[in-house]
Write a structure and sequence with these properties.
87% of the residues lie in helices and 0% in strands. The chain is mainly alpha-helical. The chain has one domain.
């Protein structure tokens, strides 16, 4: 999904922050449960290794590798999107700078030059604010899908380890 630098609003950014925050609550809750349960299992295994849940311990590392590997591939996909966005932004800014130089070169008086500089500066601040929102949205749009395999793994562990 390509994100346009000029199509974002603060409301959209705040909505994405709220969405990602809400979705991270289940991860935090499940992580606390899984961590507590596995610490207790580890302590019990230290006391009596023969009765330890070897199957549970054997899947800890492979499941993490799978979840974080999947998250990494999703982030790689999103980094390609970010690279395209950065290239487009840099290209747009170069074109804008070229147009700005033409405008400044065409000024016939100091007053015209001052007005042109004011207008160009205002336009730059508007583009910078829009870019800031767009970069925030790119990060948030990458975070949610990248966390999905981690979220699935942690929540599945919590459900499996419930008494």
């Amino acid at each position: 999904m390509e994100t346009s630098v000029s199509t974002h609003s603060i409301a959209g950014l705040l909505a994405a922050i709220s969405r990602n925050t809400a979705r991270s609550g289940d991860v935090a809750t499940a992580t606390r449960h899984v961590f507590g349960k596995r610490v207790a299992m580890g302590m019990a295994a230290a006391m009596n290794p023969l009765r330890a849940d070897h199957d549970e311990f054997a899947q800890i590392i492979p499941e993490k590798v799978e979840a974080f590997g999947s998250a990494g591939m999703i982030m790689l996909k999103h980094s390609t999107l970010v690279r395209r966005q950065m290239t487009r932004l840099a290209s747009d800014e170069m074109a804008t700078a070229s147009r700005a130089m033409s405008v400044l070169a065409g000024c016939s008086s100091p007053a015209d030059l001052a007005k042109a500089q004011r207008d160009l500066t205002a336009a730059w601040f508007e583009r910078a604010a829009s870019s800031f929102l767009a970069w925030g949205m790119l990060a948030l749009d990458a975070q949610d899908p990248a966390m999905a395999p981690i979220r699935r793994t942690v929540v599945a562990n919590a459900e499996r380890l419930r008494p």
